[in-house]
Amino acid sequence: MANKFPKDFLWGGAVAAHQVEGAWNVDKKGVSTADVMTAGANGVAREITKGIIEGKNYPNHEAIDFYHHYKEDIALFKELGLKAFRTSINWTRIFPNGDEEKPNEAGLQFYDDLFDELLKNNIEPVITLSHFEIPYHLYEEYGGFTNKKLIDFFVHYAKTVMTRYKDKVKYWMTFNEINNQADGQHTLHTWTNSALLFEEGDNKEALTFQAGLNELIASAKVVKLGHEINPDFQIGCMMAYVPVYPYSCNPSDLMASVKVMDRRFFYSDIHARGIIPAYAQKYWEQKGYEIEITQEERQALKEGTVDYIGFSYYMSGAVTTLPDVAGDEITEFPEAKVILNPYVSASDWGWQIDPVGLRYTLNIVYERYNLPLFIVENGFGAYDKLEDGKIHDPYRIDYLQKHIDQMALAVNVDGVDLMGYTPWGVIDLVSFGSGEMEKRYGFIYVDKDNAGNGTLKRLKKDSFAWYQKLIQEN
Ligand code: BG6
């Protein structure tokens, strides 16, 4: 079997602005949702504070100071052989509060310089418009994405940057991992996806559906607008795909897995098909949820379907309805529980390692939408040890190689149309989930620890040479 990828395959690396840039209050940047998240730890949640509180540790404020190191970092990306680099535009650099009419020129200039530097090095920018960086003011003043005004603010922001960078950026994505928030039960997810915090008595599920739907409407409007700005734009969605398997072949386990997956597919079904799926309509009716959507908005969904499906893949999950198996309850299918899959191992953070799950995901998603796919995140968060100035990380190479092998099968055996692969955290960065620095994904090590100490010096890990060779050999 040919283990090759298409000639123009986008081998790359991915980060997000708030996890690398730092410079959180430089050049008139405003406060974002990520700027009020403190450092947690492995198994300890990050705190979301009301504004910035003196004396707390906010790891995104400095991150790895990519804002001032990007030239040096891009030189390393070039040496690595990257053909694409995925990052996001930090909304609050462009509109510090989110509801201004006029953008902040210093913020626009920063991304002009960044994209120029990438293009000069033959690296294609792949840009996410909203990667957990919603202006904090939009929470304080409007309550986040449950408020329909945020649709207009997002469209205005997107129009501004798509117009400015129309000749520099071709690949766009609207909302990062929009389906993280799916069940509305995790504060970190509803906060980062939607700038949404709940009060006592709120119906979390209904409010999250409303916020998510508003984002889908905003996204569709931006897809249409983007194509008017430049017909060559490729505008995708960005999903977190965690395939959930039935634990047993008991038919009710299978049905539970279908319902759990529906909840996640809800977002890409609308992004790709432009209509609200029947299973969601029925669910809302049964629950008595009145999710607001106008005729004009329904039309917008139809007219703004995406060009490709961008997604992250890290792990799989499993569910069961069997009474004698221990697990955690879920909202999507009350009789079912999430359980640990005994057939796969897990990372130090409990993320279940399942390379075959990537091939499975590529298959089911391609069959579902028949659109090109783009793996824009995949990777292994691990503790690295610096020994004699070197980082030996065979565990990372092993994880990535096994996933790439499955990707090759999906392309060469199953016929999946795959545009590219940008593994997560090409350079070490602040973890989204825990706020740690020491949950490392990179091929490039950054000298900084969880407490924020370190020189920020960059260092190539063993995996750097491995990925470099893999890209060369395609
Ligand atoms: C995805 C996000 O959830 O996974 C990234 O898009 C995030 O922002 C990545 O960093 C890995 O998660 P974590 O919690 O290990 O940083």
Automatic annotation (TrEMBL):
GO terms for molecular function: beta-glucosidase activity. Keywords: Glycosidase, Hydrolase. Gene3D superfamilies: Glycosidases (3.20.20.80). GO terms for cellular component: cytosol. PROSITE patterns: GLYCOSYL_HYDROL_F1_1 (PS00572), GLYCOSYL_HYDROL_F1_2 (PS00653). GO terms for biological process: carbohydrate catabolic process. The keyword Hydrolase applies. Transmembrane segments: none annotated. The active site is at residue 377. InterPro entries: GH, GH_1_N_CS, Glyco_hydro_1, Glyco_hydro_1_AS. Belongs to the glycosyl hydrolase 1 family. This is 6-phospho-beta-glucosidase. It comes from Enterococcus saigonensis.
